[in-house]
């Protein structure tokens, strides 16, 4: 797997790319793309990093797997390409933004507009087999994205981490709450959104925190 990643991230993650686990992961991913339908397209595996340079990160939203349906995944968690129907969790995210901030988000499920403002839309696993959720879990991606979170926790200050659901909360368990704002709730999935995602006001809490720290808030439209 050829890693084409923004230079700031490349510098920070250089040691990870040289680890034995990443070599095994690369071999696995390369063979999967050669023999099966895999999402996102190979050139977009590290899209979250390339659209949100290390030096610009303000907030981190942690997802789990890329979408595994045709044309959906493009390397940003919860985000879909232009013209693709909104998945249920994304619909609920937009509902909470409207409730919290009082405006409807743009009528696009492509969240690149957030990434360009400093929101790292990070899935725990960066690839998936078509129509097979979780198919690339346990192959090394989790170790890599744990390292990403660890580097952000250590080398940045005043970040906002969105941890939605038990999986994300466990993954973000080592974040230093004295240096960063950690926002936790249930997942925006239809199975759980009514149990504490709706009404969590995470988007206004994020912006209030950033403003207090002298950092430009996120336009969540």
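-> sequence recovered:
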């Amino acid at each position: 797997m050829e890693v084409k990643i923004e230079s700031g991230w490349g510098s920070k993650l250089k040691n990870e790319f040289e680890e034995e686990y990443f070599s095994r992961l690369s071999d696995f991913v390369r063979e999967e793309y050669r023999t099966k339908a895999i999402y996102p397209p190979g050139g977009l595996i590290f899209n979250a990093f390339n659209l949100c340079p290390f030096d610009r990160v303000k907030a981190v939203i942690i997802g789990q797997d890329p979408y595994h349906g045709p044309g959906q995944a493009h390397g940003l968690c919860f985000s879909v390409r232009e013209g693709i129907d909104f998945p249920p969790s994304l619909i609920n995210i937009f509902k909470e933004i409207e409730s919290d901030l009082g405006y409807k988000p743009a009528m696009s499920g492509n969240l690149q507009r957030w990434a360009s403002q400093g929101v790292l839309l990070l899935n725990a696993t960066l690839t998936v087999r078509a129509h097979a959720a979780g198919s690339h879990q346990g192959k090394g991606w989790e170790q890599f994205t744990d390292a990403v979170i660890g580097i952000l926790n250590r080398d940045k200050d005043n970040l906002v981490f969105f941890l939605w659901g038990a999986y994300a909360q466990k993954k973000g368990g080592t974040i230093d709450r004295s240096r960063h704002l950690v926002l936790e709730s249930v997942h925006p999935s239809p199975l759980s959104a009514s149990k504490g995602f709706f009404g969590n006001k995470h988007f206004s809490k994020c912006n209030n925190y950033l403003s207090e720290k002298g950092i430009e808030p996120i336009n969540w439209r």
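Strands lie at 38-39, 59-63, 119-123, 128-129, 160-164, 181-185.
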